[in-house]
Amino acid sequence: MTDTSTRPTLTSSGGAPPAPVARSTSWWARQDITRGFWVKLVLVALVDALGVYGVLAAGAQSQWGIVAFLVVALVAVNVVYFSKRMLPAKYLVPGLLFLLVYQVFVVLYTGYTAFTNYGDGHNSTQADAVEAILVQNETRLPDSPAFPLTVISDGDQLGFAVVDAEGAAQMGTAEEPLHPVEAPIENGHVASVNGWITLSFNDILEQQAEVFALRVPISQDPNDGSLRTPDGSTAYVYGSTMVWDEDTQTITDTARDVVYTADQETGTFTSPIGAQLGTGWKVRVGLDNFTKVFTDSTLRGPFVGVLIWTFAFAILSVATTFGLGLFMAIVLNHPKVRGRKIYRSLLIVPYAFPAFLTALVWQGMLNRDFGFVNQTLLGGAHIPWLTDPWLAKVSVLVVNLWLGFPYMFLICTGALQSIPAELYEAGKIDGAKPWRLFRSLTMPLLLVSTAPLLIASFAFNFNNFNVIYLLTEGGPDDLSAPVDVGATDILITFVYRLAFGGVNRQYGLACAVSILIFAIVASISAITFRKTRALEDLI
Amino acid sequence: MRRSIPVVAATVGLALTLAACAGSNDEPSGDATSAAPASAATLTVWVDDTRSGPVKEVAKVFEKEKGVTVKFVQKDFGDIRDDFISQVPAGQGPDVIVGAHDWLGKLVQNGVVAPIELGDKASDFLPVATQAMSYDGTLYGLPYSVENIALVKNNALVKDATPATFDDLVAQAKAAGTDYSVLIQQDEKTGDPYHMYPLQTSFGSPVFGTDSTGAYDANKLTLDSDQGRAFAAYLAKLGTEGVVNTSISGDVAKEAFLAGKAPYMITGPWNTGDFAKAGLDISIEKVPSAGGQPSQPFVGVQGFFISSKSKNALLANEFVVNYLGTPDVQLALYQAGGRAPALTAALEQISDDPIVAGFAAVGQDGVPMPSIPAMDTVWADWGATEVAIVNQQGDPAALWNQMTASIAGKIAAA
Questions:
Q1: Which of A158, A276, A405, B69 could crosslink A325 through cysteines, CB 3.0-4.6 Å?
Q2: Which chain A residues touch B18 with a CB distance below 8 Å?
Q3: Is residue A502 less than 8 Å (CB to CB) from chain B?
Q4: Interchain CB contact of A245 with B (< 8 Å)
Q5: Are residues B116 and A504, on separate chains, in Cβ contact within 8 Å?
Q6: Which of the given ranges, A283-297, A365-379, B64-78, B225-239, has the highest pLDDT on average?
Q7: In this complex, is the C-beta atom of A291 within 8 Å of any C-beta atom belonging to chain B?
Q8: B376 CA to chain A: closest CA distance, Å?
Q9: What are phi and psi of A433, to 5 degrees?
């Protein structure tokens, strides 16, 4: 479709200016139009179509940031791919764009959120909070009648025409309180008012925001309340107990006579005695979230405990998986072992299953009363594998060992096979025993190629959310802790609980802890990478 | 000059795609004009799998009568609340969602839900339903169903009448000689205070006390009471006797009951459909009291909420109040999900169903599940502590006190 429609248009527009015919043939000649060019044209056209659609969609939602990004990205894509130069960019642009969207943006946004109090009760802007508070506190006056409503318009302003309790017609506008009017009534509704146009339901829909926002006072005294309509066909008397004053930035509760002042430090409306309105807004709180982790006594204790266990979990996971993987690799690397291929294939099996599936199966197998481990392997024992704090830690490590050792086995097998056999022969001639050979030959040469992978594995396990969350959900919970935290919670699951857990969602705090996690993992990785360079000097 | 071709190509491409987009944008509105009186309004509704069928049916009628478009987004029920809270402020949220009443505290706190006015219709709904859908005296949602748990009895296994106390019930059930006596589903990590609540309230220990208007008050944590500690001791006893076992998950319990391995199960209407399908002869009863006072299950109400930032507020209200609040829709939703309608007229039409009537009768004694934000703070500690008590991991009263102190601390900090 795109292809066929592109061709004639392009040719005609290319040849449209009548004068430079000769030159235009020379373009074609020089451009070297091949089939590849057309493929490129179609592909880029598709990308452009998608991009323009995105621009229009984002524009319709007034998301100008996204519009700007899409426009820049589209221009970049077209320039890069239709340019004769910029060869490297042709390869890099797709990756770069995805990197920007999925990495850079996420990182920046996390960083930004860490400096705000974003979370439950601080969900949006101050304007939204004010609107929400006013809406929540504008209620239908108790025992007030419902009025059959006709929405009318004189071209400039909207008005309400209603039938009152006595069956008489009344009308009013935002400025003009309700007053009796001579008007015919049909089917219980005012049919028309002289000088006003009666709006049909579809007319109302055209300007439903205005109709919905219209308040018609029912008398000169504003405390009597005003009429408004939720559905365009019935009006009710509403009274508001909260009054917003933009100049003084205060909300006054007229029912209780309390003034709540906007506090931009905390993003809440606060009364002189410290009472707060439930709905607040998002404000920047500086380093509060970071200092809170270390100074708030309810957070500090759990944080330190979780941090220690996270290190233990990550280090032990790497150590056990590497140990078992290496052992298996060495055993199965020995030429005298029969059926090596079968063993090797079998050992890859845990690696081949999706990890989340395996974790869930293990969770079932470790169930105290119905699990396979207790029922079948241990003859009907009732060992609380997942619900005792220490056994749960062991279980998590064992399951992670099951999940992780095939990978280590694979890389160790590869690394072992790349060690030249002559080195071993030379070692044997020098009289080295097997242990000595392993210690002085195998290990150092193995670590040259596997050390970076071990560091990567450490970083991965440091944030190994899946195993913890699917197996124990961080539990068993520490019932005496002042925040939700469990015995197997590592930092990332702890963050998840802060952000999405049962108690108030604290996205800002969770982002701050995420950044701390990043700092820890990054610095450890940087230091160890530097150390492993020493290993490379061996060869 | 060399550059000209790319520039031309790019412009033409852009122009073409722009034209294509403009064309595709025109199409839907063109359809709308041909279908009914013109209106560009589009209502976006989030529903889950269970409710989507009936809601889509009524939406078709709505579209035809009002000449508008209703767009559906199907979501996991569990995701709707949080997605709604995060997307409404960004202006990306829907106009209408289906949800549960106990979300209200969070929805109101985050300012994402708009009050709703039912007018004269309010009295057509069960009082407990509109009460549950209210927060701080303001009604926020149109209720469509009311649900609660009750004691489900397998009449084939026990012929005698159900005893008046829980101890006698357990004794009678054990005498039946089945693997289990009274199944109460649990979770080995998070417990299940919801299913234990009838027993807890029979000791006279609700979670929160109420203020003068009858609304739950987060500052009155009535869990922290002698009655609460008495329940904790009783729970420990049930744990030692093996009546309550934290390994019995919802699935295990359901399978066991289906297989005739237990004469009684405390569960809700979402399971009785399968029991009936399996040919079990069941009846619905009140959970016998364990502590001397009436057992009160939590009543959960589900319904429809309107976004506070809906650009189609009028249309949304019209759809929710005047289309979803009709007996036909409520009955269709009952057929789809098994939950009893919240509209009295709809409920009366199916009241000859003994199961529906049984649950409704038990629900009369029920109390709405608290919807205040503080309730979110309660669940985790409450469940984990009940697990510890059932598994004898400490003195019941001490564990219970630790729990109430922890919950009170978290509420104060929030």
A1: A405
A2: 52
A3: yes
A4: no
A5: no
A6: B225-239
A7: no
A8: 5
A9: -80, 165
Tell me which residue in A9, A121, A140 faces B110 most closely, judged by beta carbons: A121
Concatenating the DSSP letter of every residue in B211-237 gives -TTS-EEEEEETTSSHHHHHHHHHHHH
Within a domain: B20: no
Q: Which domain holds residue B173?
A: 150-296+373-413
Reported as a single tens digit per residue, the pLDDT across A3-14 is: 444 344 443 444
Same domain? For B360 and B304 the reply is yes
Backbone φ and ψ for A239, nearest 5 degrees, come out as: -125, 145
- List domains and CATH numbers for chain A: 2-15+22-114 (no CATH), 124-137+244-281 (no CATH), 140-240 (2.40.430.10), 294-536 (1.10.3720.10)
CB burial string A502-536: b at 16+ within 10 A, e below:
bbbbbbbbbbbbbbbbeebbeebbeeeeeebeebe
Beta-bridge mates of residue A269? A262
Of A279, A370, A500, the CB nearest to B247: A370
Q: What is the ipTM of this complex?
A: 0.74
| pLDDT tens digits, one per residue of B221-277 | 999 999 999 999 999 999 999 899 988 989 999 999 999 999 999 999 888 888 988
* Count of domains for chain B: 2
Q: What is the pTM of this model?
A: 0.78
Contact between A367 and A411 (Cβ < 8 Å): no
pLDDT band at residue A27, thresholds of 50, 70 and 90?
Answer: low
H or E stretch at B210: strand B208-210
Q: Which positions in chain B touch A140 (Cβ < 8 Å)?
A: 117
Shortest distance between the Cα of B179 and any Cα of chain A, in A, equals: 14
Establish, for the pair of chains A and B, how many residue pairs have beta carbons separated by less than 8 Å.
Answer: 219
The CATH number given to whatever domain includes residue B107 is 3.40.190.10
Are B44 and B132 part of one and the same domain?
yes
Identify which has the larger pLDDT, B47 or A6. Answer: B47
